[in-house]
Amino acid sequence: MAHARLTRRSLLRAAGASALALGVGPRVASAATKPKRIIFCVTMHGFFRPNLELVPPGKTSGDAYEFPLDPRALSPILEPLAPWTDRLLVLDGLSMNSAIADYWTALNPHVPGHIHLLTGAPTAEQDQDGAASTASVDQRIAAHIMASRDRPAFGSVEVGFGQGGGIELGAYNWSAPSTSLPYLYEPAALFDLLFDDLGSGNRTGTDTKGLPAWRERLARFASDEHAALLAAKTGASAERLAVHRDLLAALADRFAGLDTLACMPPTRPQPSTTYADRYADHAKVLAAAFACDLTRVATIAFESQDAIDCGGLPGSDLHGDYAHSTTEDATDGDEESDAVMTTAATNHAGHLAPLLATLADVQEDDGSTLLDHTIVVWTSELARGRHQGARAYSDLPVILAGGDAFALGRYVSYAEQHAPPMSAAPVGPDAVGPSHNHLLVSLCRAMGLGDVTTVGVESVPLMDGTALDCTGPLDSLV
Amino acid sequence: MPSLIPIDARSLLPWVLPCLVSAVLVGCRDHVAAGGTTDDGDSSSAGSSVETSSTDSEPSSCAIESREPVRRLSAFEYTRALQDLVGVEIDEALLPASSSTTVFATDDAALGSSALLVDGQFDATVIAGQAVLARMEADGASFMGCVPSDPACIDTWLSAFGKRAHRRPLADDERDRLRALFDEVTAADGRNVAVAATVQALLLSPRFGFHVEELDEDGRPDDYAIASRLSFLLWSSAPDEALLDAARRGVLRDRAERTAQAERMLMDPRAAATMVRMVRELLDLEALASVDPIDPRWSASLRAEMDAEIDRFIETTVFAQDGTLAALLTSRWVDAGPQLAALYGIAAGTDELPVERAGLVTRAGFLAGMTSGASPSPVRRGLVVLDRLACTAIAPPPPDVPEIPAGDAGLTNRDRYEQHTADPSCAGCHLQIDPIGFALEHFDAIGAYRSVDNGQPIDASGAVLGVAIDGAFELSTALADSDVVATCAVTQWLRFGLGHALRDGEACARDELAADFIAAGGDLPTLLVDIAASPLMVE
């Protein structure tokens, strides 16, 4: 028997409902209040920080300072973002202190980096294979959005992480403790998820006949069936059914909304042939999803690049051959690794630029653009590729772009003024900056969760016997 | 930049995954029995006492923990059940797991729900619904088992089809809701569309997409729950009519009945498919799909032949030949395609492997999947054997794993790994792992035999489970002779079947099963029958 991969889109085409103007660029749905959106862009292997950080005269790395970004005076890694300087906020000196404190569980520094980055919380108890103990901040934001009356079709979408490209080190996105979310690798798959239901019509409000016309009714029926069974269950069983019930209800909403969608989908992407093309296509589909208000939260998990695309030798491995061999914090590194890892991060800045451009190209009906209402967060699972023990997590760069929540066009360096967390030994930083949990709180608040005070741990015990408070928003963002 | 062999963290991660699976989620127990009447006069799900209560005793002193009564079907289970019900094959890729780090796809940690999964499930039901619609339009009576225009036909069909889809009779309220949906669709789009939509609704129900166990009046899984446990254990799919009928008669608490059912079910091709899937997941054979060894002989078609050969070997060995674990680990029977046969140095078709190979871990489909760049990885090979076949937990590697030293002139693959092992921070674990992998050093990155490496003769001496070995044959033989490996096989089957790491009572049952398994010469079909007959199926 032949494999079937029949999508609803092909069914719709068979039903003669394919007359939608595919290929027309997105235009935004009309709404009085523009929804806030957020995209987390997470790259691998950290940054070669000497070619990222900017230190003004009279200051040294690790000091507290801030200054306006000058497009003519950016670091090599930030250079591809020069056209967007006035829309950037570069944060330097934050620390994933929760990960340092949780360091004893580490398989290797990548694993807690993946878990802590968007949770700010320890790995699950008795679980050393990289499971989170709580939902990640994107899902917290998504849950808040999906609880609203004008919720979009999807709480969030997650893309990236090709097979063998990093997901085996742990996901970034967790819907619940120990429950990670799957990633869509190909932009065409993301397009199919978001747009392939367009135009089939519903039993209510259209003339479309046949089985496809019942999709919303069936999704609603299924959600109700889960609710009915849920009423007789308790504990984990009830929780599992409740999650599925809500996802089916969201699917039904999506079917209903797609039939009255006031925007045009993009062209379905072709299978991507290069890394850069793949993420440029993801950017287009995500921008269209935002424009159509199909979702407001996205994560792009950039998998590890091929070393040869970063100036490495043919057949070499970016991680094994270069990321560990830079000269930062080391006496046995080599400058070739510095160059390759600089190129790797610079490439990622180059991947980010088309995303910003695409978001800026879509105008809302009040003359603003999607970028005006979208926070883009670029960071990495590690601060630096040369991840020696718990030093993997201090001085974590974060590049924010877009949105209207923060004062943009600036570079902010936070002082490393705290003793390291208790578990920093044997190889840890001498001092750490503010916990990245504060940033996660600020992002929640920027996305409308005004009463959030804590994301992840509330505090981290320090080696000097004190504790570092991790609650509240991050200073100097506005 | 010297050419280094990357010992990437990704290749090390599998060290600990299987042995560190956390305790399964144990929520509040569900003591709500199905209750109510069902539409076929069933006695089991309503909690009535069964006619075979006198045979209920089990020869076990283990206090088996109750299972979480609601658990999602894995993609394999979902697609198998859908195929058995509607005859449509669905690509499992449509149903993404929530974790890629578990050994078995049935593990609780892989069974979270996501928007992507629900979208894929809906797509799957659309495909099934369209197939049903086509059958209805071609010959509705054939599909429904009654004349569609007969006023009684819809209820008759709904009861019968619903029972198979939900793996138990429809409760009255469920049937009423489905019938109302059917009538609604019929009024707008006619009977054929209504039947297809009703099938879709049944497939979208939690009673299809989840394992949903109801309890009898004694708070134990009812017979329909037992029927599903048996069918998913042996077939990774839903119960057939015979099993559902046994559940209706309330006889599945009878150990002899379960034994008879299991023996019957093992004759079905679905049992072989499940066996192949279990072994593939156990040995991480899917790794072959993502490796790309740097070798001019490597090709996609060779990869496909490796995959097919290892599947045929598992199925034939267990169900048409010896049937023992030892045979899986040592048999030379092979049915290889032309490219793979050339790699093995034998004739295409059924043959016997050369003397240097014996059993699963010497098959190219396993060996080539355990490759790191251009070289075989004794670490990955050794880890799979130690962790998956011997259930020996290995401590996590240190945070900053040094790289394997460069391939200088004259150094063999083994030399490079031994240099790595000499690092005190690595030696503790690698002294357990590498000697197993070294025994497979006669096989290169694509699993082809070699007598020299980098101009040096191969040294395939090693050790496994405290036994000194030299070469793959002795490794396979040592594994086949080991009670540790036999006990581990039982553990892994239970983890595959139960979907979680064993709890105390389950481990107790495992010990009893393992003793019988070893006494029976490691016969795998007998093990499956014993598991089916064990208290694990009824508690």
Task: Provide key terms for this protein.
heterodimer; A: 478 residues; alpha/beta; Alkaline Phosphatase, subunit A; 2 domains; two-stranded antiparallel ribbon; 11 helices; B: 539 residues; mainly alpha; two-stranded antiparallel sheet; 22 helices; 10 strands; 50% helix; 6% strand; disordered N terminus
Structure overview:
The complex is a heterodimer of chains A (478) and B (539). Chain A is of the alpha/beta class. Chain A folds into two domains: 35-198 and 271-454, Alkaline Phosphatase, subunit A (3-Layer(aba) Sandwich), CATH 3.40.720; 200-260. In chain A, 29% of the residues lie in helices and 12% in strands. Chain A is built from eleven helices and twelve strands. In chain A, a hairpin with a 5-residue loop joins strand 11 (459-461) and strand 12 (467-469). In chain A, helix 5 packs parallel to helix 8, helix 6 (215-230) runs antiparallel to helix 7 (235-258) and helix 8 (275-291) runs parallel beside helix 10 (335-361). The N and C termini of chain A lie far apart (61 Å). Residues 1-27 and 199-208 of chain A have low confidence and may be disordered. Chain B is mainly alpha-helical. Among the domains of chain B are: 9-18 and 298-481, no CATH class; 70-212, no CATH class. Chain B has helices at 9-12, 75-86, 115-144, 153-166, 172-189, 191-204, 206-209, 223-235, 241-249, 255-265, 269-282, 300-319, 325-330, 338-344, 364-367, 378-389, 413-422, 424-438, 472-481, 483-498, 504-519, 524-533, and strands at residues 70-72, 210-212, 333-336, 349-352, 371-372, 375-376, 452-453, 456-457, 461-464, 467-470. In chain B, the strands form five sheets. In chain B, strands 1-2 form a two-stranded antiparallel ribbon. Chain B has a two-stranded antiparallel sheet with strand order 3-4. In chain B, helix 8 (223-235) runs antiparallel to helix 9 and helix 21 packs across helix 22 (524-533). Classes of the chains: A alpha/beta (478), B mainly alpha (539). At the A-B interface, strand 6, helix 6, helix 7 and helix 9 of A face helix 1, strand 1, helix 3, helix 5 and helix 6 of B.
